Amino acid sequence: METRKLEHFIELAITGSFSRAASNLHLTQSALSKSIQSLEAELGIQLIERMGRRCTTTTAGSMMLERARNLVFEVDNLVNGASENSDIEGTLRVGFGAGPGACMASSLVTHVLHDYPKIQLLLRRGTVQFLMSALRDRSIDMVLIDTRSLALSGDLIVEDVGALESGIVCRVGHPLALRPSIGVRDLLQYPILSTAVSDEVARLTEAHFNLQRDIRSWTVVESEELEPLIAAVARSDAIFFGVTAAAKDLIAAGKLQTLSIENSMNLSIPVSVVRLSSKGDSRLFDIVKEFASNWLRTSNSSLMAHA
């Protein structure tokens, strides 16, 4: 039995669609269908049941799915371990939370293309709930995420790799940028754009600034994608609360700037690499962990040079 067929089955079970699975696997639907039929013939059971344009696993298919995932990942670990002292190759599937994704994803792509050309890199971005579900479904290998957003459990290995600096960003020439001093209530006179704010940060902010209500109630636009928020701030009087490194290119270009306010808070965002405890170590994990640590060490000082 070829593990390739098991990978096809796993992708189909996750997506529930032949067209989406075929696209993700870079196959034609016909080739995917033949692969699934061949696997079913080898096993002597029906794995997939078609339901119009959708499909689902049969009872036997659901039982086979977890075994298939474990087998594929055991094979991956064996191959990765054998390649420690040779050219590193394999498939690495990385999930990114909002801040790490906006700041680090493109640099990781460049790093892998330049230094590890034999690695196939697959990236996913989304909410914490989506990423942790994908990690436990084994459709991604590891996640780079805001540590505070995690619900810790025994099936996870969480490794700290550094922190992202958070702050306040506006366009150059913004009315507030011309003032000699700014208070938090001055900021709240303008539209606030932000990613999701955790309960912990909301409580700390409310207490620190003696606000009468949750800081999140002033947020006009909330998004897990930081790029649209940063672009909107560059073209309007809106204010961005969040990871300042996401705006570093426009800050360096002289289009955006950070704002300092009276009685400011230091709210750095701890970043961790998260993986399943049941998944063995591999050099592929180390590549991402080392990249993230190095990127975080150098990015904040680079950003301050342009502030």
Structural account:
This protein is α/β, with parallel strands linked by helices. The chain has three domains: 82 residues, Arc Repressor Mutant, subunit A; 113 residues, D-Maltodextrin-Binding Protein, domain 2, CATH 3.40.190.10; 102 residues, Periplasmic binding protein-like II (D-Maltodextrin-Binding Protein, domain 2, 3-Layer(aba) Sandwich), CATH 3.40.190. Helices cover 45% and strands 21% of the residues. The protein contains eleven helices and twelve strands. The strands form three sheets. A five-stranded mixed β-sheet has the order 4-3-5-12-6, with helices on both faces. The protein has a five-stranded mixed β-sheet with strand order 9-8-10-7-11. Helix 1 packs across helix 2, helix 1 crosses helix 3 and helix 1 crosses helix 4. The relative contact order is 0.14.
Q: What is the residue-mean pLDDT, rounded to a whole number?
A: 85
User: How many domain modules?
Assistant: 3
The structural class is alpha/beta
Radius of gyration: 23 Å
Major sheet summary line: 5 strands, mixed
**How much helicity do the residues have?**
40-55%
- Main CATH class of the largest domain: Alpha Beta
Topology pattern, helix = H, strand = E: HHHEEHEHEHEEEHEHEHEHEEH
CATH-assigned homologous superfamily of the largest domain = Periplasmic binding protein-like II
Which secondary structure elements does this structure contain, and how are they paired or packed?
Elements: H1 3-15, H2 18-25, H3 29-43, E1 48-51, E2 54-57, H4 59-82, E3 90-96, H5 98-115, E4 119-125, H6 128-136, E5 142-146, E6 156-164, E7 166-171, H7 184-187, E8 192-194, H8 199-208, E9 219-222, H9 226-234, E10 239-243, H10 248-252, E11 256-259, E12 269-276, H11 283-306
